[in-house]
């Protein structure tokens, strides 16, 4: 198989750099008279995927995960991560320089309160923290008897000798045939929401929202087609997009003509001050608006109205064209997955296949669709104990031969008509009874979500337990959410909807989410089964309230060899058999003869 085009197996940093870089940062902090510094995994837009020029956490610590913090003091330094990365972080950082801390046990603020000495000055970059995050930091620092100091420049940048240049990819238009709604119509909806909120303007700080509103895309970060820029949208009149004009060609200029003005990024501060000076509150997105933006609004004599960017919810509810585009993307992606899994079934038993070879093959099958724009995230391909790391990313140093047991592959594609994300756990040779038990319990949780019927107004938090019940009955659980929102040729992780204990936003028809319960046995194996699902109205005979349910969008077989049928109910078996019949019906006519034979075998009724 050909090598990858959209992902690399080289780790840009190594644990060995942690100690020297930590010392350089401490020396710089001492020069500034600062006793500590907070390093989030974020850029000024608070994004999950950040350009290399802004990946300060990875540069400092060598931790490569998509979320986390470092807190550096003169005599202590911690890297704090969530449940996805508690195993990974220990493998990546210099444990003599940094202490790994699980956020499930200790928050960033609690760690600061426990370790900052009275009178200590803790610095932070106001461009890298939201207003709420800053307030929490201030409270923790105050409780420790210290002082939180907003720095005018980031001290890491001062010691990062070979910092990459910031991104400057061309802006491209997302055609109406994929977007489904003109930018002018979207702007009118947002302005209506702003008028109802009695604010004068909106600072669009989330590049995903900017991309959706103006029907534009870019490539400023890997795997998510974003333009990292700001826009100002007044309640009346055109928005202004602040982006370098050299990034806009004639076609995009025509696309934006009459819809949005374009101005240089250097004029953003003055434009924000001018809007603030008009007196009406300026809406600043609570989720992505940096503290520095609030400070700029107040310095201009205005008031920042901290709240939800109305675009976020509008973007989450996919229109009819976006829904159909997602279905098309998933059929296309299902063909690539079927070809990959059929290939894997032939190659893995030989004992020579590696994790990297599997990743390369899967990307190659996706590229052969002739529609792949990028992968939607670096493929997670874990054999044996690597599968127990939910967000494991194979490198040349960690590459493992796939041996008998369990192999987990979590991957996705970016297509102009939709974004995909799918996980399959497959058997290689003989598996244990315990593996079958845990796999079947994860499958039961997956089916419970897929078949859920719930009243309008229900949130993801209310459904999350359904995915865990069978695991709880066996005395176990998983530490990540059951599902996240997914964009339309945008981020594979999109809010505000989620299936999680923290998912308080009501689900609405048109929202797309993942359904991915799992089980992880540290040092041994891991299991996850993921499909994407679309919220849709659901009629219930004799029902008294409007009800909702899910349409499953993904079409890829679930490994029958890992299922213990004795643990499943008749209804669960019926769902699985019906799902496999749908997979065969949708994907079978689109694959080659060899793959079709494999597909027919793997989609047989469970008890046949």
TrEMBL record:
GO terms for molecular function: metal ion binding; metalloaminopeptidase activity. Residues 327-536 form the Peptidase M24 domain. GO terms for cellular component: cytoplasm. Residues 21-152 form the Creatinase N-terminal domain. Keywords: Aminopeptidase, Hydrolase, Metal-binding, Protease. Transmembrane segments: none annotated. InterPro entries: Creatin/AminoP/Spt16_N, Creatinase/aminopeptidase-like, Creatinase_N, Pept_M24, Pept_M24B, Peptidase_M24_C, X-Pro_aminopeptidase_P. Residues 546-606 form the Peptidase M24 C-terminal domain. Gene3D superfamilies: Creatinase/methionine aminopeptidase superfamily, Creatinase/prolidase N-terminal domain. SUPFAM superfamilies: Creatinase/aminopeptidase, Creatinase/prolidase N-terminal domain. Belongs to the peptidase M24B family. This is Xaa-Pro aminopeptidase.
């Amino acid at each position: 198989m050909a090598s990858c085009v959209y992902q690399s197996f080289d780790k840009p940093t190594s644990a060995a750099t942690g100690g020297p870089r930590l010392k350089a940062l401490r020396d710089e902090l001492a020069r500034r008279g600062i006793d500590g510094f907070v390093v989030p995994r974020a850029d000024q837009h608070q994004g999950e995927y950040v350009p290399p020029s802004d990946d300060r956490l990875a540069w400092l610590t060598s931790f490569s995960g998509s979320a986390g913090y470092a807190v550096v003091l003169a005599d202590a330094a911690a890297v704090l991560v969530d449940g996805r990365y508690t195993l990974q972080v220990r493998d990546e950082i210099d444990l003599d320089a940094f202490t790994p801390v699980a956020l499930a046990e200790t928050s960033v603020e609690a760690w600061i309160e426990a370790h900052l000495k009275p009178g200590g000055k803790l610095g932070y970059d106001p461009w890298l923290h939201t207003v709420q995050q800053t307030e929490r930091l201030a409270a923790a620092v105050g409780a420790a008897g210290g002082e939180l100091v907003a720095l005018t420049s980031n001290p890491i940048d001062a010691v990062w000798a070979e910092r990459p240049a910031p991104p400057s990819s061309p802006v491209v238009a997302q055609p109406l045939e994929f977007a489904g709604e003109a930018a002018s119509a979207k702007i009118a909806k947002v302005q209506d929401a702003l008028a109802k909120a009695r604010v004068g303007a909106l600072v669009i700080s989330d590049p995903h929202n900017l991309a959706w509103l103006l029907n534009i895309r870019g490539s400023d970060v890997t795997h998510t087609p974003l333009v990292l820029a700001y826009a100002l949208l007044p309640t009346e009149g055109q928005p202004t997009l602040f982006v370098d004009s050299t990034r806009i060609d004639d076609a995009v200029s025509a696309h934006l003509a009459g819809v949005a003005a374009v101005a240089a990024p250097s004029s953003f501060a003055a434009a924000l001050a001018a809007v603030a000076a008009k007196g009406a509150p300026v809406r600043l997105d609570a989720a992505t608006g940096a503290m520095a933006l609030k400070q700029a609004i107040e310095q201009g004599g205005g008031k920042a109205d901290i709240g939800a960017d109305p675009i976020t919810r509008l973007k989450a509810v996919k229109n009819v064209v976006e829904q159909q585009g997602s279905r098309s993307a998933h059929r296309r992606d299902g063909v690539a997955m079927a070809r990959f899994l059929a290939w894997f079934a032939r190659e893995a038993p030989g004992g020579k296949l590696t994790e990297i070879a599997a990743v390369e093959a899967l990307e190659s099958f996706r590229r052969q669709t002739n529609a792949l724009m990028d992968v939607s995230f670096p493929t997670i391909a874990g054999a044996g104990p690597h599968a127990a790391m939910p967000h494991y990313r194979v490198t040349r140093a960690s590459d493992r031969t796939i041996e008998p047991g369990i192999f987990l592959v979590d991957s996705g594609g970016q297509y102009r008509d939709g974004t995909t994300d799918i996980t399959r756990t497959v058997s290689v040779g003989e598996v244990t009874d315990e593996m079958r038990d845990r796999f079947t319990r994860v499958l039961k949780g997956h089916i419970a979500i897929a078949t859920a019927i719930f009243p309008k107004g229900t949130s993801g938090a209310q459904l999350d337990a359904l995915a865990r019940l069978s695991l709880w009955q066996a005395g176990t659980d998983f530490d990540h959410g059951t599902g996240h929102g997914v964009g339309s040729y945008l981020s594979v992780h999109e809010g505000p909807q989620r299936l999680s204990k923290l998912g308080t936003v009501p689900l609405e028809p048109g929202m797309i989410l993942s359904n991915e319960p799992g089980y992880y046995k540290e040092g041994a194996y891991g299991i996850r089964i993921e499909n994407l699902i679309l919220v849709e109205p659901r009629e219930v005979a004799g029902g008294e309230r409007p009800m909702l349910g899910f349409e499953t969008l993904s079409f890829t077989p679930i490994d029958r060899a890992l299922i213990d049928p004795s643990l499943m109910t008749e209804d669960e078996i019926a769902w699985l058999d019906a799902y496999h019949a749908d997979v065969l019906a949708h994907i079978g006519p689109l694959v080659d003869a060899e793959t079709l034979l494999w597909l027919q075998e793997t989609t047989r009724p469970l008890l046949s």
